[in-house]
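Students often ask why we bother predicting the structure of a whole assembly rather than each chain alone. The short answer is interfaces. A chain on its own may look different once its partners are present, and contacts between molecules only exist in the joint model. In this exercise we take two input lines together and write out one structure for the complete complex. Read the inputs first and try to guess which parts will touch.
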Amino acid sequence: MSSYDHNPIVEMSDITKHFGPVIALNGVSFDVRPGECHCLLGDNGAGKSTFIKTMSGVHKPSSGKILFEGREMSFASPRDAMEAGIATVYQDLAMIPLMSVTRNFWMGREPIKRLGPLKMIDFDKANTVTMEEMRKMGINLRSPDQAVGTLSGGERQTVAIARAVHFGAKVLILDEPTSALGVRQTANVLSTIDKVRKTGIGIVFITHNVRHALAVGDRFTVLNRGKTLGTAQRGQITPEELQDMMAGGQEMVALEGSLGGTV
Amino acid sequence: MTEEAQPAGGPTKAKSDERVKEIGGFRRWLIRPELGGIIGTIAVFLFFIIFAGDSGMFKAQGIMNWSQVSAQFMIIAVGACMLMVAGEFDLSVGSMIGFAGMSIAILGVTLGWPIWIAILLTFALCIAIGAINGLIVVRTGLPSFIVTLAFLFILRGFTIFFPQIIERRTIIGGIDTAAEGDWLAPLFGGEILGFVFQWLSNIGLIEVFERGNRAGEPVIDGLPMLIVWALGLVVFGHFVLTRTRFGNWIFAAGGDAQAARYVGVPVERVKISMFMFTAFCACVFATCQVMEFGSAGADRGLLKEFEAIIAVVIGGALLTGGYGSVVGAALGALIFGVVQQGLFFAGVESSLFRVFLGVILLFAVILNTYIRRIITGER
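Now the answer. The structure tokens for the assembled complex follow.
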């Protein structure tokens, strides 16, 4: 894949984050290049959430360096990170079910038209763009007025992804986008990830599901107890090895044996 | 293993999903928040046309009578509606009405300041209290129900306390004389379009006084500013909520504050400004009322907060926030006004009005819950 010719968009080295006496991150290094899908794997409590919140400007790291397009950056707020081009799609907080797809899509960045002194939302433009962006992702909406609550979980993720792409994200962080979805919807979201990657956006795909990661990932980084255990390229690592690294080795081997290698 | 989840792309998805039923016109209408209000308004009018049609309720004076009562409800319902859509309540509206009226009376009559100064200062004071309400709610994360309940008592207490210690009574009159010749007072207590009513009486559409020193003049002098304020606030609120960026933020703040924050919506600012707007509406109500009565009383506005909330709920807003309509709330207010005065015209004991309130509130909440399930697809 040509993505290795590019320099990383975001490069984070040796990030630590302490919350009082708790060490949530203890030396994490990670980078994303344009057009790649870099999977961040880790079991519950490994520090995945803290790490992406550091990347998206919610937390400030206690130490370590964040380079954005080669320059050192320190984001004061999620808004700053968003302006720079780092978009985050959170698992369950992405959409407001009672509001229409259009209103959700443009939330916070509504297009404005003027009528004399009155400034109002340009709904014609908003609706057209929303329908168009959703069509690109393979979803035909019944109407842009449709409430997000009527969409399936996978479709909601897709609206959130389409929104991030439309607003010029260079890096898209997906926080466990598939963890609550069924098989079919998971496949849809993974194919959306593939489409977005091909447009040259760097994707950070957080998951604890090795199968989902291997389905679309170009590189895989495993996080365990606040540390990165190294990064592997596609084809250099087997699902079993990834699984072992995530779970921290020994007990998992024993468990897997008793379950007949199905986990 | 990797292939199973690597789909070919989306051509199959692009077709419409066979499991999504086409939504018929009826259901599409059903998910409009105003529906309950529209049906209720029609029902209420039909009812009173049948049972009180010959009582004068639908003659000029009768119409003006229930229009004014409805307009009062409307003014506070607009504020309560927008605040509820933003996900918060204000239980201090009724006390705020009493407080604002008393403030105008004390500043304008007791202290003898010009009425326009009294009005402007009162507005500033009320909006500031609204901002404090909002700040406390936003900063502490406490339910607005509790915070504004505290202000319900605090403001009512002061409303009784100040006139007691200053004037040794709880009603202060003389506002009408103090307001004579004032430039700002007519904005709340005056009437406009008198010539229209003169013309309507000339062509025989409305009655004229037949006896007394005003014989020949139309029974209605003009459109009271109270009604102008009500209609103006409804148009303003509806426009802001449905057409503007800020309106989208109000929906977002009430629908899911955290999701809104993630996309950069200033949720705190939105909520605080809605508390301020609710206080503004209460102050408009109070100013119109003291200009009409010429006096301020410590018990004014009692229970108004609940009546406003009921009007908003009849108008289709969800108590949990994120969904509602100013037009719906206005229709809810109209239903209130018509029923309250209609029972009087129909010669029914007026205490039944409260029974009606309770029953219709129950129906509205059940209907709204059902509608919410349709919108969000919950089962």
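Check your guess against this: The CA atoms of residues 167 and 332 of chain B lie 39 Å apart.
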